[in-house]
Amino acid sequence: MIRFAGAMLVLLAGTLIGYAQAARFAARPRQIRQLIHALQRLETEIQYGQTPLPEALARLAGVVPEPVSGLFANIAGQLEQRAGPTVREIWERAIAGGWSRTAMKTPEREALARLGATLGGSGREDQLKHVRLAMLQLQAEETAAREEQQRYEKMSRSLGVLGAALVVIVLL
Amino acid sequence: MAPNVPDLFVHPLRGVLERLPEHAAMTLEEIRVRENRPLEIGYAGRYAFVRPDGSLAADGRSAYAPGREECRALLERVTRHSLYAVEEELKRGYITVEGGHRVGLAGRAVLERGTVARLKDITGFNVRIARARGGCAAAVLPGILDFRERTVRHTLIVSPPQQGKTTLLRDLIRCISAGEWSHAAAAGWGGRKVGVVDERSEIGACEAGIPSFDLGPRTDILDACPKAEGIMMMIRSMSPEVIAVDEIGRQEDADALAEALHAGVRVVATAHAADLEDVFSRPVLAGMAERGMFGAYVLLSRSGGKVEHRVIAAEQTSREFKSRPKPAIRSPDAFAAERPVP
Fold it and tell me: Do residues A46 and A56 make contact, with C-beta atoms less than 8 angstroms apart?
Protein backbone atom coordinates (compact mmCIF):
# COMPACT_ATOMS: atom_id res chain seq x y z
CA MET A 1 0.00 0.00 0.00
CA ILE A 2 2.73 2.40 0.98
CA ARG A 3 4.66 1.37 -2.11
CA PHE A 4 1.69 2.14 -4.28
CA ALA A 5 1.24 5.52 -2.67
CA GLY A 6 4.94 6.28 -3.19
CA ALA A 7 4.74 5.27 -6.82
CA MET A 8 1.76 7.55 -7.32
CA LEU A 9 3.61 10.42 -5.71
CA VAL A 10 6.62 9.93 -7.96
CA LEU A 11 4.37 9.76 -11.01
CA LEU A 12 2.54 12.90 -9.95
CA ALA A 13 5.76 14.78 -9.28
CA GLY A 14 7.26 13.76 -12.62
CA THR A 15 4.15 14.81 -14.48
CA LEU A 16 4.06 18.19 -12.75
CA ILE A 17 7.72 18.81 -13.52
CA GLY A 18 7.06 17.95 -17.15
CA TYR A 19 4.07 20.27 -17.32
CA ALA A 20 5.94 23.10 -15.62
CA GLN A 21 8.76 22.72 -18.12
CA ALA A 22 6.28 22.73 -20.99
CA ALA A 23 4.60 25.84 -19.60
CA ARG A 24 7.97 27.63 -19.61
CA PHE A 25 8.47 26.74 -23.24
CA ALA A 26 5.03 28.13 -24.01
CA ALA A 27 5.44 31.25 -21.89
CA ARG A 28 8.75 32.38 -23.36
CA PRO A 29 7.54 33.43 -26.83
CA ARG A 30 4.44 34.95 -25.28
CA GLN A 31 6.44 37.09 -22.89
CA ILE A 32 8.87 38.13 -25.61
CA ARG A 33 5.87 39.28 -27.62
CA GLN A 34 4.63 41.30 -24.64
CA LEU A 35 8.05 42.83 -24.30
CA ILE A 36 7.94 43.84 -27.97
CA HIS A 37 4.50 45.39 -27.44
CA ALA A 38 5.87 47.33 -24.50
CA LEU A 39 8.79 48.62 -26.54
CA GLN A 40 6.42 49.68 -29.32
CA ARG A 41 4.58 51.72 -26.75
CA LEU A 42 7.86 53.16 -25.53
CA GLU A 43 8.65 54.16 -29.11
CA THR A 44 5.41 56.12 -29.26
CA GLU A 45 6.01 57.75 -25.90
CA ILE A 46 9.45 58.90 -26.98
CA GLN A 47 8.50 59.99 -30.47
CA TYR A 48 5.18 61.73 -30.01
CA GLY A 49 4.74 62.31 -26.30
CA GLN A 50 8.35 63.11 -25.41
CA THR A 51 7.31 61.66 -22.07
CA PRO A 52 10.05 61.58 -19.44
CA LEU A 53 11.35 58.08 -18.89
CA PRO A 54 9.88 57.39 -15.42
CA GLU A 55 6.36 58.21 -16.62
CA ALA A 56 6.83 56.41 -19.92
CA LEU A 57 7.95 53.22 -18.16
CA ALA A 58 5.09 53.40 -15.69
CA ARG A 59 2.71 53.54 -18.65
CA LEU A 60 4.39 50.55 -20.26
CA ALA A 61 3.82 48.62 -17.05
CA GLY A 62 0.13 49.36 -17.48
CA VAL A 63 -0.21 47.94 -20.99
CA VAL A 64 1.42 44.52 -20.56
CA PRO A 65 0.55 41.72 -18.11
CA GLU A 66 2.78 40.33 -15.37
CA PRO A 67 5.60 39.40 -15.05
CA VAL A 68 6.86 41.73 -17.81
CA SER A 69 4.96 44.69 -16.40
CA GLY A 70 6.62 44.13 -13.01
CA LEU A 71 10.02 44.77 -14.55
CA PHE A 72 8.98 48.15 -15.93
CA ALA A 73 6.99 49.14 -12.86
CA ASN A 74 10.03 48.38 -10.73
CA ILE A 75 12.36 50.51 -12.89
CA ALA A 76 9.86 53.36 -13.07
CA GLY A 77 9.37 53.32 -9.30
CA GLN A 78 13.10 53.38 -8.62
CA LEU A 79 13.62 56.23 -11.07
CA GLU A 80 10.88 58.26 -9.39
CA GLN A 81 12.36 57.64 -5.96
CA ARG A 82 15.82 58.48 -7.22
CA ALA A 83 17.03 55.17 -5.85
CA GLY A 84 20.13 55.15 -8.01
CA PRO A 85 22.33 57.54 -9.87
CA THR A 86 21.70 56.53 -13.48
CA VAL A 87 19.12 54.72 -15.58
CA ARG A 88 21.73 52.15 -16.54
CA GLU A 89 22.37 51.07 -12.97
CA ILE A 90 18.71 50.97 -11.97
CA TRP A 91 17.84 49.10 -15.12
CA GLU A 92 20.56 46.49 -14.63
CA ARG A 93 19.59 45.96 -11.01
CA ALA A 94 15.91 45.58 -11.83
CA ILE A 95 16.61 43.05 -14.57
CA ALA A 96 19.00 41.08 -12.40
CA GLY A 97 16.39 40.96 -9.64
CA GLY A 98 13.23 40.30 -11.63
CA TRP A 99 14.41 38.20 -14.53
CA SER A 100 14.04 34.83 -12.80
CA ARG A 101 10.30 35.49 -12.46
CA THR A 102 9.95 35.50 -16.24
CA ALA A 103 10.30 32.56 -18.61
CA MET A 104 12.72 34.45 -20.80
CA LYS A 105 16.34 33.50 -21.35
CA THR A 106 19.74 35.14 -21.72
CA PRO A 107 19.53 36.50 -25.30
CA GLU A 108 16.41 38.55 -24.51
CA ARG A 109 17.96 39.69 -21.30
CA GLU A 110 21.04 40.92 -23.12
CA ALA A 111 18.99 42.77 -25.70
CA LEU A 112 17.03 44.53 -22.97
CA ALA A 113 20.14 45.32 -20.93
CA ARG A 114 21.78 46.88 -23.99
CA LEU A 115 18.73 49.06 -24.47
CA GLY A 116 18.82 50.11 -20.83
CA ALA A 117 22.41 51.26 -21.17
CA THR A 118 21.45 53.79 -23.84
CA LEU A 119 17.97 54.82 -22.75
CA GLY A 120 17.53 58.44 -21.80
CA GLY A 121 21.09 59.30 -22.73
CA SER A 122 20.64 60.79 -26.17
CA GLY A 123 18.34 62.67 -28.52
CA ARG A 124 15.05 61.44 -29.83
CA GLU A 125 16.19 60.02 -33.17
CA ASP A 126 19.00 58.10 -31.54
CA GLN A 127 16.71 56.71 -28.84
CA LEU A 128 14.24 55.50 -31.44
CA LYS A 129 17.03 53.69 -33.28
CA HIS A 130 18.03 51.89 -30.11
CA VAL A 131 14.46 50.91 -29.27
CA ARG A 132 13.92 49.61 -32.80
CA LEU A 133 17.16 47.67 -32.71
CA ALA A 134 16.10 46.02 -29.45
CA MET A 135 12.73 45.16 -30.98
CA LEU A 136 14.41 43.53 -33.99
CA GLN A 137 16.59 41.42 -31.72
CA LEU A 138 13.58 40.41 -29.67
CA GLN A 139 11.65 39.48 -32.79
CA ALA A 140 14.48 37.15 -33.84
CA GLU A 141 14.44 35.61 -30.38
CA GLU A 142 10.69 35.24 -30.53
CA THR A 143 10.93 33.21 -33.74
CA ALA A 144 13.56 30.98 -32.20
CA ALA A 145 11.48 30.60 -29.05
CA ARG A 146 8.42 29.56 -31.06
CA GLU A 147 10.42 26.88 -32.85
CA GLU A 148 11.66 25.61 -29.51
CA GLN A 149 8.15 25.64 -28.17
CA GLN A 150 6.88 23.50 -31.07
CA ARG A 151 9.75 21.10 -30.73
CA TYR A 152 9.97 20.72 -26.96
CA GLU A 153 6.64 21.63 -25.39
CA LYS A 154 4.89 18.29 -25.96
CA MET A 155 8.12 16.40 -25.56
CA SER A 156 8.85 17.76 -22.10
CA ARG A 157 5.32 16.95 -21.01
CA SER A 158 5.61 13.30 -22.11
CA LEU A 159 9.18 13.19 -20.83
CA GLY A 160 7.96 14.12 -17.37
CA VAL A 161 5.38 11.35 -17.28
CA LEU A 162 7.62 8.76 -18.86
CA GLY A 163 10.61 9.65 -16.69
CA ALA A 164 8.48 9.26 -13.59
CA ALA A 165 7.19 5.94 -14.90
CA LEU A 166 10.78 4.79 -15.43
CA VAL A 167 11.73 5.71 -11.89
CA VAL A 168 8.68 3.83 -10.59
CA ILE A 169 9.54 0.74 -12.59
CA VAL A 170 13.17 0.77 -11.51
CA LEU A 171 12.27 1.23 -7.85
CA LEU A 172 9.53 -1.36 -7.86
CA MET B 1 21.46 70.81 2.81
CA ALA B 2 19.33 73.94 2.73
CA PRO B 3 15.64 73.06 2.54
CA ASN B 4 15.03 74.62 -0.86
CA VAL B 5 18.00 73.07 -2.63
CA PRO B 6 16.74 70.72 -5.31
CA ASP B 7 17.38 67.02 -4.81
CA LEU B 8 19.64 66.66 -7.83
CA PHE B 9 22.99 65.69 -6.46
CA VAL B 10 24.36 62.23 -5.74
CA HIS B 11 26.85 61.05 -3.22
CA PRO B 12 29.61 62.25 -2.60
CA LEU B 13 28.81 65.69 -4.10
CA ARG B 14 25.59 65.66 -2.13
CA GLY B 15 27.46 65.12 1.10
CA VAL B 16 29.77 68.07 0.40
CA LEU B 17 26.79 70.36 -0.14
CA GLU B 18 25.08 69.07 2.98
CA ARG B 19 28.08 70.15 5.04
CA LEU B 20 27.98 73.75 3.85
CA PRO B 21 28.11 76.26 6.69
CA GLU B 22 24.70 77.43 7.86
CA HIS B 23 24.97 81.06 6.68
CA ALA B 24 25.94 80.00 3.16
CA ALA B 25 23.30 77.29 2.95
CA MET B 26 20.53 79.66 3.97
CA THR B 27 21.44 82.32 1.42
CA LEU B 28 22.46 79.95 -1.37
CA GLU B 29 21.86 81.37 -4.83
CA GLU B 30 23.90 79.31 -7.21
CA ILE B 31 25.68 75.99 -7.24
CA ARG B 32 28.19 75.77 -10.03
CA VAL B 33 29.36 72.30 -10.93
CA ARG B 34 32.10 71.82 -13.49
CA GLU B 35 33.44 68.38 -14.22
CA ASN B 36 36.83 67.79 -12.60
CA ARG B 37 37.10 71.44 -11.65
CA PRO B 38 36.49 73.16 -8.32
CA LEU B 39 32.96 73.22 -6.98
CA GLU B 40 31.74 76.78 -6.57
CA ILE B 41 28.72 78.31 -4.86
CA GLY B 42 27.17 81.75 -4.94
CA TYR B 43 25.51 82.97 -1.76
CA ALA B 44 24.41 86.36 -0.45
CA GLY B 45 25.91 88.06 -3.50
CA ARG B 46 29.33 86.48 -3.00
CA TYR B 47 31.18 83.52 -4.46
CA ALA B 48 33.34 80.87 -2.89
CA PHE B 49 34.80 77.47 -3.63
CA VAL B 50 33.82 74.52 -1.47
CA ARG B 51 36.30 72.16 0.14
CA PRO B 52 35.45 68.43 0.51
CA ASP B 53 34.50 69.02 4.16
CA GLY B 54 31.98 71.71 3.17
CA SER B 55 34.01 74.68 4.34
CA LEU B 56 34.41 77.65 2.01
CA ALA B 57 37.64 78.73 0.39
CA ALA B 58 38.60 81.68 -1.74
CA ASP B 59 41.16 79.58 -3.57
CA GLY B 60 40.03 76.82 -5.94
CA ARG B 61 43.03 74.57 -5.47
CA SER B 62 41.89 72.95 -2.24
CA ALA B 63 38.28 72.74 -3.40
CA TYR B 64 36.26 69.65 -4.11
CA ALA B 65 36.17 68.68 -7.80
CA PRO B 66 33.09 66.70 -8.85
CA GLY B 67 33.95 63.70 -11.02
CA ARG B 68 32.55 62.35 -14.25
CA GLU B 69 30.04 59.99 -12.66
CA GLU B 70 28.59 62.70 -10.41
CA CYS B 71 28.15 64.99 -13.39
CA ARG B 72 26.51 62.26 -15.45
CA ALA B 73 24.11 61.51 -12.62
CA LEU B 74 23.40 65.23 -12.19
CA LEU B 75 22.59 65.56 -15.89
CA GLU B 76 20.29 62.54 -15.69
CA ARG B 77 18.40 63.99 -12.77
CA VAL B 78 18.15 67.43 -14.32
CA THR B 79 16.71 65.90 -17.50
CA ARG B 80 14.60 63.39 -15.56
CA HIS B 81 16.62 60.63 -17.21
CA SER B 82 15.27 61.71 -20.58
CA LEU B 83 17.54 63.78 -22.79
CA TYR B 84 15.18 63.07 -25.67
CA ALA B 85 12.38 64.93 -23.91
CA VAL B 86 14.35 68.14 -23.34
CA GLU B 87 15.82 68.73 -26.79
CA GLU B 88 14.15 72.10 -27.06
CA GLU B 89 15.57 73.15 -23.69
CA LEU B 90 19.04 71.93 -24.63
CA LYS B 91 18.89 74.19 -27.65
CA ARG B 92 18.32 77.15 -25.33
CA GLY B 93 20.93 76.00 -22.86
CA TYR B 94 18.94 75.67 -19.67
CA ILE B 95 16.36 73.44 -18.06
CA THR B 96 13.91 74.37 -15.33
CA VAL B 97 13.58 71.62 -12.75
CA GLU B 98 11.07 70.82 -10.03
CA GLY B 99 10.65 73.80 -7.71
CA GLY B 100 11.39 76.41 -10.37
CA HIS B 101 15.16 76.16 -10.08
CA ARG B 102 16.88 76.86 -13.34
CA VAL B 103 19.84 74.78 -14.36
CA GLY B 104 22.07 76.37 -16.98
CA LEU B 105 24.11 73.96 -19.04
CA ALA B 106 27.39 74.28 -20.87
CA GLY B 107 28.92 71.72 -23.17
CA ARG B 108 29.70 71.28 -26.81
CA ALA B 109 27.17 72.66 -29.24
CA VAL B 110 26.00 70.50 -32.11
CA LEU B 111 25.09 72.56 -35.14
CA GLU B 112 22.55 71.76 -37.77
CA ARG B 113 22.36 74.07 -40.77
CA GLY B 114 24.33 76.70 -38.92
CA THR B 115 22.15 76.96 -35.81
CA VAL B 116 22.57 75.23 -32.47
CA ALA B 117 20.60 71.99 -32.54
CA ARG B 118 21.53 70.79 -29.06
CA LEU B 119 24.36 70.45 -26.58
CA LYS B 120 26.44 67.35 -26.02
CA ASP B 121 29.28 66.48 -23.65
CA ILE B 122 27.60 68.60 -21.01
CA THR B 123 30.07 69.21 -18.21
CA GLY B 124 29.12 72.61 -16.81
CA PHE B 125 26.07 73.17 -14.62
CA ASN B 126 24.79 76.28 -12.95
CA VAL B 127 21.96 75.47 -10.56
CA ARG B 128 20.15 78.70 -9.74
CA ILE B 129 18.07 78.39 -6.63
CA ALA B 130 14.62 79.91 -7.03
CA ARG B 131 12.90 81.32 -4.00
CA ALA B 132 9.62 82.96 -3.37
CA ARG B 133 10.09 86.02 -1.22
CA GLY B 134 6.63 87.02 -0.13
CA GLY B 135 6.33 90.72 0.52
CA CYS B 136 9.17 91.98 -1.66
CA ALA B 137 6.63 93.59 -4.00
CA ALA B 138 4.98 95.60 -1.21
CA ALA B 139 7.59 98.34 -1.45
CA VAL B 140 7.49 98.55 -5.23
CA LEU B 141 3.79 98.27 -5.95
CA PRO B 142 2.62 101.69 -4.67
CA GLY B 143 5.09 103.32 -7.06
CA ILE B 144 3.67 101.71 -10.16
CA LEU B 145 -0.05 102.14 -9.50
CA ASP B 146 -2.28 103.92 -12.01
CA PHE B 147 -4.90 105.58 -9.81
CA ARG B 148 -7.09 106.81 -12.67
CA GLU B 149 -7.55 103.35 -14.17
CA ARG B 150 -7.35 101.59 -10.81
CA THR B 151 -4.67 99.19 -11.99
CA VAL B 152 -0.90 99.09 -12.51
CA ARG B 153 1.04 101.08 -15.06
CA HIS B 154 2.97 99.39 -17.86
CA THR B 155 6.09 98.48 -15.97
CA LEU B 156 9.53 97.29 -16.96
CA ILE B 157 11.68 95.74 -14.23
CA VAL B 158 15.32 96.27 -15.08
CA SER B 159 18.42 94.78 -13.53
CA PRO B 160 21.54 92.78 -14.34
CA PRO B 161 21.23 89.01 -13.89
CA GLN B 162 21.06 87.62 -10.37
CA GLN B 163 19.41 90.58 -8.65
CA GLY B 164 15.98 89.12 -8.14
CA LYS B 165 13.96 90.25 -11.14
CA THR B 166 11.98 87.07 -11.35
CA THR B 167 11.46 86.93 -7.60
CA LEU B 168 10.05 90.47 -7.65
CA LEU B 169 7.89 89.76 -10.70
CA ARG B 170 6.51 86.65 -9.01
CA ASP B 171 5.48 88.60 -5.94
CA LEU B 172 4.06 91.46 -8.01
CA ILE B 173 1.89 88.96 -9.87
CA ARG B 174 0.69 87.51 -6.60
CA CYS B 175 -0.15 90.93 -5.16
CA ILE B 176 -1.91 92.21 -8.28
CA SER B 177 -3.88 89.00 -8.56
CA ALA B 178 -4.83 88.98 -4.89
CA GLY B 179 -5.48 92.73 -4.72
CA GLU B 180 -2.82 93.44 -2.09
CA TRP B 181 -1.98 96.88 -3.40
CA SER B 182 -0.08 98.07 -0.32
CA HIS B 183 -1.58 101.52 -0.73
CA ALA B 184 -4.36 103.12 1.29
CA ALA B 185 -6.10 104.66 -1.74
CA ALA B 186 -6.19 101.32 -3.50
CA ALA B 187 -7.62 99.29 -0.66
CA GLY B 188 -10.98 98.61 -2.30
CA TRP B 189 -9.80 97.85 -5.81
CA GLY B 190 -9.78 94.09 -5.52
CA GLY B 191 -7.56 91.78 -7.54
CA ARG B 192 -6.97 91.90 -11.27
CA LYS B 193 -7.00 89.03 -13.75
CA VAL B 194 -3.36 88.31 -14.51
CA GLY B 195 -2.11 86.35 -17.49
CA VAL B 196 1.41 84.99 -17.14
CA VAL B 197 3.32 83.82 -20.18
CA ASP B 198 6.00 81.74 -18.57
CA GLU B 199 8.34 80.88 -21.42
CA ARG B 200 11.12 79.60 -19.17
CA SER B 201 8.81 77.98 -16.62
CA GLU B 202 10.60 80.08 -14.06
CA ILE B 203 7.88 82.38 -12.80
CA GLY B 204 5.39 79.73 -11.78
CA ALA B 205 7.55 76.58 -11.96
CA CYS B 206 4.51 74.65 -13.11
CA GLU B 207 4.26 70.95 -12.62
CA ALA B 208 1.66 69.42 -14.88
CA GLY B 209 0.10 72.84 -15.30
CA ILE B 210 -0.18 73.71 -11.59
CA PRO B 211 2.19 76.45 -10.41
CA SER B 212 4.41 75.47 -7.50
CA PHE B 213 4.79 79.11 -6.43
CA ASP B 214 1.84 81.08 -5.15
CA LEU B 215 0.88 83.44 -7.95
CA GLY B 216 -2.44 84.57 -6.52
CA PRO B 217 -6.04 83.47 -7.03
CA ARG B 218 -6.77 85.28 -10.33
CA THR B 219 -3.73 84.20 -12.31
CA ASP B 220 -3.69 82.13 -15.50
CA ILE B 221 -0.43 80.67 -16.68
CA LEU B 222 0.68 79.63 -20.13
CA ASP B 223 3.59 77.42 -19.28
CA ALA B 224 6.65 76.99 -21.54
CA CYS B 225 5.00 79.06 -24.25
CA PRO B 226 7.04 81.40 -26.47
CA LYS B 227 6.31 84.94 -25.27
CA ALA B 228 5.19 86.55 -28.52
CA GLU B 229 2.71 83.81 -29.36
CA GLY B 230 1.69 83.36 -25.76
CA ILE B 231 0.78 87.03 -25.27
CA MET B 232 -1.50 86.90 -28.30
CA MET B 233 -3.06 83.64 -27.14
CA MET B 234 -3.68 85.11 -23.71
CA ILE B 235 -5.35 88.23 -25.09
CA ARG B 236 -7.56 86.20 -27.40
CA SER B 237 -8.56 83.52 -24.96
CA MET B 238 -8.23 84.56 -21.33
CA SER B 239 -9.17 88.27 -21.29
CA PRO B 240 -6.41 89.27 -18.87
CA GLU B 241 -6.28 92.73 -17.33
CA VAL B 242 -2.56 92.49 -16.66
CA ILE B 243 -0.01 90.42 -18.57
CA ALA B 244 3.26 89.46 -16.96
CA VAL B 245 6.26 88.18 -18.90
CA ASP B 246 9.88 87.49 -18.09
CA GLU B 247 12.95 88.74 -19.92
CA ILE B 248 11.79 90.52 -23.02
CA GLY B 249 14.30 91.68 -25.59
CA ARG B 250 13.45 90.39 -29.04
CA GLN B 251 11.54 92.28 -31.69
CA GLU B 252 8.65 89.74 -31.67
CA ASP B 253 8.22 90.32 -27.95
CA ALA B 254 8.02 94.05 -28.51
CA ASP B 255 5.40 93.65 -31.24
CA ALA B 256 3.29 91.36 -29.11
CA LEU B 257 3.55 93.70 -26.12
CA ALA B 258 2.51 96.62 -28.33
CA GLU B 259 -0.50 94.58 -29.31
CA ALA B 260 -1.33 93.96 -25.66
CA LEU B 261 -1.00 97.66 -24.86
CA HIS B 262 -3.44 98.57 -27.59
CA ALA B 263 -5.83 95.90 -26.39
CA GLY B 264 -6.06 97.76 -23.10
CA VAL B 265 -4.06 95.23 -21.15
CA ARG B 266 -1.47 96.38 -18.65
CA VAL B 267 1.97 94.82 -18.99
CA VAL B 268 4.55 93.98 -16.35
CA ALA B 269 7.78 92.72 -17.87
CA THR B 270 11.40 92.23 -16.92
CA ALA B 271 14.55 92.83 -18.95
CA HIS B 272 18.26 92.34 -18.54
CA ALA B 273 20.04 95.66 -18.36
CA ALA B 274 22.41 97.31 -15.94
CA ASP B 275 20.54 100.59 -15.73
CA LEU B 276 18.21 102.84 -17.66
CA GLU B 277 20.98 103.96 -19.96
CA ASP B 278 21.43 100.33 -20.95
CA VAL B 279 17.75 100.06 -21.66
CA PHE B 280 17.97 103.00 -24.01
CA SER B 281 20.99 101.55 -25.79
CA ARG B 282 19.35 98.20 -26.54
CA PRO B 283 17.58 98.65 -29.87
CA VAL B 284 14.36 96.81 -29.11
CA LEU B 285 13.93 98.14 -25.59
CA ALA B 286 14.88 101.64 -26.68
CA GLY B 287 12.29 101.50 -29.44
CA MET B 288 9.62 100.52 -26.95
CA ALA B 289 10.71 103.14 -24.46
CA GLU B 290 10.76 105.90 -27.05
CA ARG B 291 7.26 105.07 -28.17
CA GLY B 292 6.30 105.60 -24.58
CA MET B 293 5.17 102.06 -24.03
CA PHE B 294 6.23 101.85 -20.43
CA GLY B 295 4.76 103.96 -17.70
CA ALA B 296 7.29 103.09 -15.03
CA TYR B 297 10.65 101.46 -14.61
CA VAL B 298 11.83 99.54 -11.58
CA LEU B 299 15.59 99.35 -11.20
CA LEU B 300 17.04 96.70 -8.96
CA SER B 301 20.47 96.84 -7.48
CA ARG B 302 22.13 94.95 -4.79
CA SER B 303 24.48 95.78 -2.01
CA GLY B 304 25.67 92.90 0.08
CA GLY B 305 22.78 90.52 0.57
CA LYS B 306 20.08 93.16 0.24
CA VAL B 307 18.17 94.02 -2.89
CA GLU B 308 17.32 97.66 -3.36
CA HIS B 309 14.89 99.06 -5.85
CA ARG B 310 14.18 102.41 -7.42
CA VAL B 311 10.94 103.23 -9.23
CA ILE B 312 11.24 105.79 -12.01
CA ALA B 313 8.21 107.13 -13.84
CA ALA B 314 8.50 107.30 -17.61
CA GLU B 315 7.96 111.10 -17.66
CA GLN B 316 11.21 111.60 -15.80
CA THR B 317 13.24 109.32 -18.04
CA SER B 318 12.11 110.77 -21.34
CA ARG B 319 13.12 114.23 -20.26
CA GLU B 320 16.42 112.95 -18.99
CA PHE B 321 17.38 110.89 -21.98
CA LYS B 322 16.11 112.88 -24.94
CA SER B 323 18.21 115.85 -23.99
CA ARG B 324 21.39 113.82 -23.84
CA PRO B 325 23.25 112.68 -26.99
CA LYS B 326 23.88 108.95 -26.87
CA PRO B 327 27.41 107.70 -27.54
CA ALA B 328 27.36 104.97 -30.19
CA ILE B 329 29.96 102.83 -28.47
CA ARG B 330 30.94 103.13 -24.89
CA SER B 331 34.50 102.62 -23.83
CA PRO B 332 35.30 99.87 -21.35
CA ASP B 333 36.35 102.58 -18.90
CA ALA B 334 32.86 103.95 -18.89
CA PHE B 335 31.56 100.52 -17.91
CA ALA B 336 34.09 100.18 -15.16
CA ALA B 337 33.26 103.58 -13.82
CA GLU B 338 29.55 102.89 -13.78
CA ARG B 339 29.55 99.43 -12.34
CA PRO B 340 31.99 99.05 -9.53
CA VAL B 341 32.96 95.40 -9.16
CA PRO B 342 32.06 94.17 -5.70
Answer: yes
